[in-house]
């Protein structure tokens, strides 16, 4: 299945609501399709200028590798040269820390990723999972 | 003044409504702040994958140069080497055709730009102007 | 629908057979998915080293813009600054001459593109259309 | 000798058959010539979008350096600054983990490389060696 803009908007709205409810810092939330292309993005007021690149890099690395960005972060500790090189292969568009969450449909197919940046990376990931579930998708964080 | 996410969301919602009302093709709409950084983006269903890059390039070129992208297109005809070189200076992040609309506040200060891609570039710009006005801003297209 | 590797292989085999049958020069044929990512590629013996980049650029520009590369070439004559800038926005991955053919499924949805380089660009496109049709897809050249 | 497309196709078909027989995850397999240019590539269904870049980076780093990518990974542990810098010198087109296998002819001359990504890097390399041998080449993994 193909992710719709309505689903992407639901993911972003829910992730932001989760952040407000839990008292997180301002969040930036991007939703990418399975090809790593941006469907929707919002950056909350008070965020620094670089949030798009960080949120995008979390989601892009995850969807390109088929691996949640939290796991990419563990791999970066185990084999730093591999993750550094993969980042180079993706022209720097890979940020290997939690907050890049894979989105799967009911058949398990990878349909995209949500990337969040703003609070701790664990909280970022929690907000992403909440968003994914609200859109009827399975999150892999 | 600083552009807020609420204003960016209003710009996008209004531009999209304008597009639907006028029977335009699926639109992609990005709002950038005065630093050229993404505040919000939405890509309507049925758009090809490259729409973010084109919409972003229109808005980014406009806000970086302080000139609407339609005027950058005229400059590209008058002095092609200048606009080509400026595009290189911005790492390719400049698309000099209509649809990158400057956003100004009540004092005339440049606060950002909206970039639209999907229909004819004239229609793209019309949708952007509608969005800007709905957010209480002055559009320069 | 998602393009399969078997479909991509059929496209390549048929395009190559068309080229042999019509006495074309050695062909290079790439098939991309809707996100612009490579599914399959073959370069016939006797081709120069740069054929992958050219075939890829034709198909990538087409699928990113949702426009066959032949039409991108016409646009490059009408508005050279636009097509030059779009190429920059895609990091040079756009070659606006015939031979980048859009692939659509039965519902008309864009599912990818085939890019061919080696003979005249008109012949390149003919081979791509033959490949697309053999895979049960609608070609837009 | 110069690697032919038929040899490249044999390498890919055999590596894929090896993967299916051994129950590996979906594989992506690229064959490069001695100049580091793509001869053929196939990405099995169910692979994430970034597989071409990773498989290519393994093979490209190997053939550019004349060293199997597994050995580049060991060098990355011994002298991280060297491998990081070499990756930069090749514009990020070098992924120093197993799965980029050198291809040599009967005289020992380097004629290209096969790069595989999808399963563990050790399994990736095994599939590449099987492919090389089926094409009458000596594999250096």
TrEMBL record, chains A, B, C, D:
It holds the Pfam family HbpS-like. Transmembrane segments: none annotated. Gene3D superfamilies: Haem-degrading domain. It comes from the Bacteria. This is Glcg protein. It comes from Pararhodobacter marinus.
């Amino acid at each position: 299945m193909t992710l719709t803009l309505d689903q992407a908007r639901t993911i972003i709205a829910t992730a932001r609501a989760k952040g407000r409810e839990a008292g997180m810092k301002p969040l930036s939330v991007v939703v990418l399709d399975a090809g790593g292309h941006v469907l929707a993005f919002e950056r909350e007021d008070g965020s620094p200028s670089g949030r798009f690149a960080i949120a995008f890099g979390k989601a892009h690395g995850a969807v390109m590798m088929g691996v949640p960005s939290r796991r990419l972060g563990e791999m970066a500790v185990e084999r730093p040269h591999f993750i550094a090189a993969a980042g180079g292969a993706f022209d720097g568009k890979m940020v290997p820390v939690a907050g890049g969450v894979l989105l799967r449909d009911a058949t398990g197919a990878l349909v995209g990723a949500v990337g969040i940046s703003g609070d701790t990376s664990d909280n970022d990931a929690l907000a992403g999972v909440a968003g994914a579930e609200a859109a009827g998708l399975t999150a892999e964080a």
